[in-house]
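The freezer alarm interrupted the setup, so I double-checked each line after restarting. Inputs confirmed:
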Amino acid sequence: MPRRAFGKLWRIVLFTARCEVSRGDPSSEILLEGVALRLPGKQGEKPKITAFCLICPHEICNVKWETEPRPFPPGESLRADSPLFVCPCHFSVFDPRAGGARLKGPATRGLYRFWIEVGKRNVKILAVEEAALGS
Amino acid sequence: MKKYYPIGILGLFLAAVLGATPGDPARQKLYILSSHSDDMTVVDVKTNEILKRIKVGLEPHGIAAPASQRLLYVATEGDRGLTLVDTVKDEVVKKYNIFGERPNEIEITSDGRFLYLPARGTGFYEVFDTEQEKIIARIPVDGGPHNAVVSPDDRTMYLSPLGPAIRDGKERRESLNRKVYIVDTSTHQTVATIDTTHPPRPIALGRDGKRLYVNTDELMGFLVLDLPNRKVLHRVTYDLSEEEKKLRSRSHGIGVTPDGKEVWSTDTHHSLVHVFDVTKDPPRQIARLKTGEFPLWLTFSPDGKRCYVANTSDDTVSAFDVAAKKEVARIHVGKGKSPKRMLVLNVPVETP
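Predicted 3D structure, all chains:
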């Protein structure tokens, strides 16, 4: 992905990654949909680019990027003051600023993460957490 | 001048049992539950225009109507509720809050008497007697109570609980349910189970009541269950290219056309509905139809002309012409609504 696509904070870049489950065996490929974005750094830190798998760890629905502040799910006390990932199936909520950590809902962990390499011109996806590949 | 008398709850119950008078004019209406909200959208099937939104309660998750179609029930997961709606006036008549945690996909006998409510947070299907307005039985199951369908003769209820049970508010995945339950509705007791290998998801009954079509986890397709012999007859898979198979997806949403000849089943991550001819043995795929994003449930109009598919991720519903196998309308339910369960009813038109 071109690095210039990440010029603006919070702007998401969607991609599909080809993951080889067994090295050298293309028939073992799995496609994973992901999202990369540049996030503001914590106090004193520079912004950095990070990439998550869009599959919800609960039941592999695709999470949605929610930018409007409202309670998740309806009637609950959690309110978003910055964009979050929300699963439309069972309303697990994930915070990109906390490494995709789960904030609420039936998922038992945060979003699966990709390892990336940020070069001068490009951002490359290198690998993904093994758990994202399923059983 | 005509006089009007309030009919009340008993009147509605009698209407449910007696049904419409033959020859009453009727309008087809599509009821769409907004799972990530507190309302139900009512759509005119003829024009695909939204007629009304009805506030039914937090996180509406299940919908069912008796054969009369003059009323329907909505289970609201977020507030442990069951809402009774008059479909002629499209108004809430009553709300019950007596159920266990997280009411899910309800089903009701065609006479309107017994409503099966899966209380997902408790491990029981609760049987609600709509005449007495109380829970008269609780059916224990493994896993998380979730889906139910009733046989055409009302004698049997088929239950498909989710894999993991919920205890103390958390999913327990140590042991998963992998079977469909068969319940006698005269006793509300389980009489048999059928092993599905993987946790069952949405289910749909063939029109003659002899076959059950079951989506399951880990299967891009569905199982065909032989109900009289209580066994799996076929394991049917979608026609996907090798490239398409690389994308992890789910089959979650299945229905049988009113004439009993076709099964339509969703494919979430490919945004497809796969159509099968089930007059053949084994069923044969005859079409793949593109939907909106992440199709999660589907339903047919009673006349068999339309199939509605809820595209949960883009907040729309696709309307398909069943015979032509073609999308004819896309209904925008509202941003963030996450449409899921739906029902099409032939509702008598109120004449002044």
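Quick read of the result. The longest strand of chain A covers residues 29-39.
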